[in-house]
């Protein structure tokens, strides 16, 4: 359930309409048409256990001081029972429900507003932007206004904290578990709705994929770009808001709670807030670039993205801040500086790698990378409308070192978040473990799709860039 994105499919400037053979490459574009037993087993495992994992992580902090092993040991030894744990969990409240409904409604309103920040901020690319070509050969338009929504939301947050005092800055932490029930309800409602919509009134039937297996279709999605009306795009809204806008608000609430409990905000909490805010701001500053990432270009919208962005992202990506409320860590100056540098180096790799790909795509290769004219492999692929498209895959710069080198930046940044929490508990390190599994798996499934999409051209690209992620190893 991803918030870490990869630009992998720069569009070429040429296309050629063909009358036959269109379905060969396009048939495997996007997620799978058929489901093997391994994929189905993974889908059923995630559907059954991902909600439980989130519940367990949050419960361990609420009842066991962030220990992941104690509740399991007490249950296995008979010292506690599942019903005892469940009865101690705060229930869904009307306060939490009204707070969550207000939040999602507010973000939906901001999402529907036209962007005016691109007219005020130099170099920022917002407003009306075109996405990538879909498997059906359609290019959708988007109103890019995520930075605007983030800035307005946080301006109101700080105005409340320092002037209006409408609510306590600790409101998110104080209602964290009741909000979990609300997030789950929305995640499942959205997932069920888009499944029904795909059957009864799809936005574009040619961009739908039915495997015939309900569980796989429900999780991985049927519609490619489900929309209500012209502009409300489910995929972009739930990937970018409300979860990612909430990410930094959640961390600020954690910091406020730490100040309330201990009278100060530790440097580790400041590090987590700063480094994760840097990533979130980068996401919104480059939201136009995000339209060319794997989430938009290939993933269909189902439970994986719908529930994942409502529940998994805000509740697992913020574990470091949650942990630091229960276990405040004051780092030595040397350790704090070292962790900050590690996070900034990770961000540099992430940003410069994606900048190289974006520059190459925007200029159609008429640029310089590392001071020289870029090298590339030209590929072709087919859309369902019978159009043959040409694209160029970059093999220069960091993209010549590894096919997914930007993930190195993601992993270094993730490690920095975790190291900020010290070594007393494993819970804050769940994030780096999860991100490693996610990104390695994403490399594999991304390249499987690319192989089907580009055919023999993809083999030429792999020959030019032999390593996936870790040069010399993988």
UniProtKB/TrEMBL annotation:
Pathway involvement of the protein, from the record: Steroid biosynthesis; cholesterol biosynthesis
Catalytic function, reaction form: 7-dehydrodesmosterol + NADPH + H(+) = desmosterol + NADP(+); cholesterol + NADP(+) = 7-dehydrocholesterol + NADPH + H(+)
Gene Ontology CC annotations of this record: endoplasmic reticulum membrane
E.C. numbers: 1.3.1.21
Transmembrane segments: 37-58, 92-113, 176-196, 329-350
Topology relative to the membrane: Multi-pass membrane protein
Gene Ontology MF: a single term: 7-dehydrocholesterol reductase activity
GO BP annotation list: brassinosteroid biosynthetic process; cholesterol biosynthetic process
Principal subcellular localization: endoplasmic reticulum
Taxonomic superkingdom: Eukaryota
Subcellular location, record wording: Endoplasmic reticulum membrane
PROSITE patterns per record: STEROL_REDUCT_1, STEROL_REDUCT_2
InterPro entries: ERG24_DHCR-like, Sterol_reductase_CS
Pfam families reported in the protein's UniProt record: ERG4_ERG24
Keywords, sorted A to Z: Cholesterol biosynthesis, Cholesterol metabolism, Endoplasmic reticulum, Lipid biosynthesis, Lipid metabolism, Membrane, NADP, Oxidoreductase, Steroid biosynthesis, Steroid metabolism, Sterol biosynthesis, Sterol metabolism, Transmembrane, Transmembrane helix
Known function: Catalyzes the last step of the cholesterol synthesis pathway, which transforms cholesta-5,7-dien-3beta-ol (7-dehydrocholesterol,7-DHC) into cholesterol by reducing the C7-C8 double bond of its sterol core. Can also metabolize cholesta-5,7,24-trien-3beta-ol (7-dehydrodemosterol, 7-DHD) to desmosterol, which is then metabolized by the Delta(24)-sterol reductase (DHCR24) to cholesterol.
Family: Belongs to the ERG4/ERG24 family.
Name of the featured protein: 7-dehydrocholesterol reductase
Species of the source: Eublepharis macularius
């Amino acid at each position: 359930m991803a918030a870490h994105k990869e630009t992998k499919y720069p569009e070429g400037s040429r296309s050629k309409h063909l009358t036959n053979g269109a379905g060969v490459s396009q048939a495997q574009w996007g997620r799978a048409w058929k489901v093997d037993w391994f994929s189905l087993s993974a889908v059923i495992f995630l559907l059954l256990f991902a909600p439980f994992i989130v519940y367990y992580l949050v419960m361990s902090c609420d009842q066991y001081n962030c220990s992941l092993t104690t509740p399991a040991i007490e249950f296995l030894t008979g010292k506690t029972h599942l019903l005892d744990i469940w009865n101690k969990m705060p229930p869904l409240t009307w306060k939490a429900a009204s707070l969550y409904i207000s939040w999602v409604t507010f973000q939906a309103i901001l999402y529907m507003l036209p962007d005016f920040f691109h007219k005020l901020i130099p170099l920022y690319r917002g407003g009306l932007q075109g996405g990538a070509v879909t498997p059906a050969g359609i290019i959708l338009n988007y109103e890019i206004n995520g930075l605007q929504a983030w800035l307005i939301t946080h301006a109101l947050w700080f105005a409340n904290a320092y002037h209006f005092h409408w609510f306590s800055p600790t409101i998110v932490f104080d209602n964290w578990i009741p909000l979990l029930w609300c997030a789950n309800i929305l995640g499942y409602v959205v997932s069920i709705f888009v499944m029904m919509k795909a059957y009864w009134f799809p936005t574009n039937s040619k961009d739908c994929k039915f495997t015939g297996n309900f569980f796989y279709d429900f999780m991985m999605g049927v519609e490619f770009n489900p929309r209500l009306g012209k502009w409300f795009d489910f995929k972009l809204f739930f990937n970018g808001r409300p979860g990612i806008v909430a990410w930094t608000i959640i961390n600020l609430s954690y910091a406020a709670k730490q100040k309330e409990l201990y009278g100060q905000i530790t440097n580790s909490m400041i590090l987590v807030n700063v480094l994760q805010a840097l990533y979130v701001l980068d996401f919104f500053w480059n939201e136009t670039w995000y339209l060319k990432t794997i989430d938009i270009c290939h993933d269909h919208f189902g439970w994986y993205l719908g529930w994942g962005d409502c529940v998994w992202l805000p509740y697992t990506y913020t574990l470091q801040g949650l942990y630091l409320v229960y276990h405040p860590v004051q780092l030595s100056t040397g350790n704090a500086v070292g962790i900050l540098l590690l996070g900034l180096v990770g961000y540099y790799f992430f940003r410069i790698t994606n900048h190289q790909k974006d520059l190459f795509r925007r200029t159609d290769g008429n640029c310089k990378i590392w001071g020289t004219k870029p090298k590339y492999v030209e590929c072709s692929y087919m859309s369902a409308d019978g159009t043959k498209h040409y694209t160029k895959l970059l093999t220069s710069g960091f993209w010549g070192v590894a096919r997914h080198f930007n993930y190195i930046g993601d992993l270094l940044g993730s490690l920095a978040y975790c190291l900020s929490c010290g070594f007393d508990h494993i819970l804050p390190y769940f994030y780096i473990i999860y991100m490693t599994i996610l990104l390695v798996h994403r490399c594999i499934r991304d390249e499987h799709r690319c192989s089907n999409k580009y055919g023999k051209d993809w083999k030429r690209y792999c020959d030019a860039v032999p390593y996936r992620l870790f040069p010399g190893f993988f």
